[in-house]
Amino acid sequence: MTAFRSLLIVFIVCITSITVLVGIKNGWNLLPVFFDDMVSLTWPGQFNFDFMCFLILSGLWLAWRHHFSTGGILLGIAGVFGGIMLLAPYLLFESYRANGDILELFAGKKRLLK
């Protein structure tokens, strides 16, 4: 669990740093660039579509983990738009709440009690 938590911290530091630098250099209007690349049918567009599919799966997992409650659905939507900037801190926090239990971390405490 220590290695996993360390990886999450690396993700948090790196993605925050890169996001700030890219935002300063290129502006904060990501969505038109993201979708224009997909429409262009180039490799960056293919990558963006693949990445978007992962973001949707991540959001669905977050909502599922919270039993599709209102909060879970909102968290899932935030996960789709926040990506690893949301998911890494969430997993880091939840890893401590689960006391390092990987099954509880990924399924949620309620599912383990059934």
Give a topology summary.
Layout: H1 2-26, H2 30-39, H3 43-65, H4 70-82, H5 84-97, H6 102-107, H7 109-113
Helix pairs in contact: 1-5, 2-3, 3-4
Give an overview in words.
- The chain crosses the membrane at residues 47-64, 71-93.
- The chain is mainly alpha-helical and 114 residues long.
- It has one domain (2-113).
- The protein is 84% helix and 0% strand.
- It has seven helices and no strands.
- The two termini are 24 Å apart.
- The relative contact order is 0.12.
List keywords for this structure.
single chain, 114 residues, mainly alpha
Q: State mean pLDDT (0 to 100 scale).
A: 95
N-end to C-end Cα span: 24 Å
The secondary structure category is mainly alpha
Radius of gyration: 16 Å
- Please give the largest β-sheet: none
Total strand count, please? 0
Give a quick precis of the structure.
The protein is an all-alpha fold.
